[in-house]
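User: When convenient, might I ask for sequence and structure tokens for a protein?

AI:
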Amino acid sequence: MGEGHFRLSLQKLHRAGGRGRLQQGARVCHSLVAMAAYRSGSRLHDLEVGEIEDYRRRQRGVVDAEILLPETAPAWACDREKLWNAVAQVEKRRGAVLGYEFVLSLPHEIGENSDASRDLVRGWVKTNLVDRHGVAADVAWHRPGHEGDDRNWHCHVMVSDRKFAGQAWATKQGSRADGELGSTGELRRWRLSWAESCNQALVKIGSPTRVDHRSRRDRGLPAETAQLREGKARHMARRGVESDRDRQVTARLRAIRLGSSLSALTSALVSESQGQPLAEYRVGQDIARTIAAAIIPKKIEPPNTVFRGGHEPDERAMVNARLEQRRRDDLARRQAARGLRAKKPTTHGPRGRVR
């Protein structure tokens, strides 16, 4: 039974100062209407800033988009442009929360099946957001990007912060009790519910893959592997964000792979040098040492930037052990070469080199 990728992330959308400005987590976006247009690949008129937000060119990356509403919601809320302009109009206070955005990762076995992915997301959003909290939900299914992982099928769900009360917006509550929209307890319940829904959909299509909403620590698994670290480094580099830690991890992984290749090359040179002048062997050794010294660090320094979780000591110990083993192998090869040289007659040139 394989393990699929799980993701359910939630970000609060609130005003960030300035007319129409929207803050999504730590990132400041253009406006709420612009964000809805971008996610859905549509053309919307932002009444607050007086601009047309046209993202129809993104339609090739958008599989489908639709709005889900409570049964008592007004008919005008089915229009994406009217819905998000109304949300922006009612939330006038500086720093006001306008809504939330969910990012749901779809197992690629389901993402490639359009009917299965629509049924899965519709059912989960309708049950856990629209019916439970009485909010509007704008759902957009996205296919993988050209430069990323071709299994990255995912879905964006924008929800309003206010509930509907008949044909109008309801009054906001001052504080959020556990179980309310945006609370920590509700987020935990959402993650569990989304994992269960994904697994039920995977069983339905006959896939052996399963997802788990728990962290690796909670499941008693070891820290994330070096392969996952390297994947994160590549992803950050594609976005133009690269830290010293990313560069060190990538360089060390390349050094380990190169070191294995160099060990095999040196062993081959030792075998081929039997019964031949040692000049070829010495030259090959010099080349191998030069490449190794230029690329493989002799000592792994503690990184300046540390990822959360404290996993780097184990990785550093592993790399140092590999480097120490290569040092011992190189010493053994040099000793073998000295023994071979003592058995053969040698002729020295002007600078004392063996020829």
